[in-house]
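Q: What does the assembly look like in three dimensions?
Context provided by user:
Components: two
Sequences:
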Amino acid sequence: MTLVQAGDPRAFEVLFDRHSGAAFSLAYRMVGNRVTAEDISQEAFLSIWRSRLRYRSDRGSVRTWVLGIVHHRAIDALRRNLVHDRRRATAEGLEERLEAPELTDVEVARRDEASQVRSAIGTLPSEQSRVVELAYFGGFTHSQIAEMLGAPIGTVKGRMRLGLEKLRRELVEQVA
Amino acid sequence: MARDHERHADDPAAYLLGALSELERQAFERHLMGCSTCGEELDHLRPATEALPRSVSPVRPSEALKSSVMEAVEREAAEREAAEREQPSRRRAGATGIRTRLRALVPSLTGRGPVVAWVSASFLLAVGLAFGAVGASLLSDDDGRTLAARVDSVRVPEASGSLTIASDQSRGAILRVHGMPSLPSREVYQVWIQRDGEMVSQSIFSVGEDGGGAAAVPDDLEGADSVAITREPSGGARAPSGKPVVSVGL
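A: Here is the predicted structure of the complete assembly.
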């Protein structure tokens, strides 16, 4: 990362190779089509290159930083209504069918990791996992979700908090 | 705990999930600056939100994505290298410095006392926008120094910036930024000099689609404490309406 911050394109290429799969997968999961997901990923990586001096290792891993920027860009795209065919945070499905037929070792590891996190999400009461997924992957605001579910805003926000709290506990237990 | 904590008590989870509207997000971030309880709640819940993208099965992007990203990265790196190579060979500015030339460009910016400056908004906007094109040439014959900007990691998390000051700092400076959020049409970024606790307006500007932009700081920087950028209503403000999103200590 030091070389990336010094402006070395070859070091940035290594960063791209390491994280572009996860970045594109997240964007694709959120917007549901490859063209828009690639646009978002491209914007995000150029933004990462241009703001490379902003990265601070004490605030989290490079992967977390990269995925945070991708998530932010995808939400912007969803809210600007650039994505006409929104997937609306459905469960896993389409991407499973479209994933690369021959996975690399890294992709296999990522798939296993994905399975573990999904298993933790699966332990949440459905009303909690629903609001978490609608917000994080669907890009909906809490008031849109409240309207969608016919629930008070306070209830929706409470479910978000309880959902994240439980998910955190599950993940800690998985590690333990 | 901040006085308005009750109003924001349920916001940390929604904030981490990206579920607050733009206005709610800004209000929460202002609250966050003075509320350690919410800060602790964010830190506590953050590992859960950071795990969510890891639940996604891998999907491979096309090769074209890498080509287009690396092409832009290599082009920008080459431009930067070329600019750095040229810098030492450039002759020092003659008698006509940045400030003098800016005076020609912006006559209304000169001759002000230490009061909050008010300059025609549309005129300043034009200067701010135009500066992206002319700023480089104004500095190109000057061996000034460049200072890195501090950015508000919550409100402009992807931003970076620098202030290039003329070797004679009385001749002003250019503030360049990257990765700034695009603003709605009713808002602009406004540049200020802070001196003895007083904020003096310098220029207003917008950023391009890539979040990049440049703005003039035409006033003498002698005795100034910092140069700062705030978000203001379209047309600019007579005094900053909020905390700076970017600042450069002098």
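Follow-up: Chain A has two domains: 1-87, 100-176.
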